[in-house]
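Friendly challenge for the regulars: who can give me the structure tokens for this chain first? No prize, just bragging rights.
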Amino acid sequence: MQKDLSRFILEGSLNTVFGTVIGGAFLVAFALALGATDAHIGLLTAMPALLNLVQIIGSYLISLVGSAKRVCLVASGIFRLIWLCILLMPMFILSDPGTGAVVLIAFIAAASLFSSLSGIAWMSWITPTVPESIRGRFFGHRNMVGSFVGMIIGLVAGRFIDFWQNTYPEGSQMILGYSLLFGFGILFGVAGWVVLTRISDPHSTK
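First reply, four minutes later:
Bragging rights claimed.
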């Protein structure tokens, strides 16, 4: 059990790096570089919250599959594949302002769907795994480590984007900086996914 708990903390740190560099200001700036309007940005930022409603379906899916781990791994794996498509977008969408933003919104909608599914599956998987007597302390420690990692990575990623935009202030090369940042994040996301595969699933019913 101790190994599983340590791996959950490691997975949290790795995926915090992933989540930090693909979200927030970096995602908004990427969308603007693709020609997004204010309406596009509003829809883009609202999408994850809207797709959280799919968690109701996620609970049913977990009971149907019989393994929260299996649902989590499949959904989070697809989520990472969608982000691989997003980082490749500048190679195919270099003109026609607005088109890139619409495609990005479609990808984010799909990514948010699978993120919500993996989130509810992850919670269903980890909660019974952590003994109730240490549950509060464990999640507090995991969140503290993740917050520290996220703060450091956010600062480093911001400095990288500043450097890249000063070096390549316009055109496709400027947008490429975001793809490189997303690629860096995906590497950590894949590493976090691999760590998840090594955690036991004692509550599987199938």
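Residues 135-167 form the longest helix (33 residues). The helical segments are 2-22, 24-33, 38-51, 55-65, 68-87, 99-129, 135-167, 172-197. Your move, everyone else.
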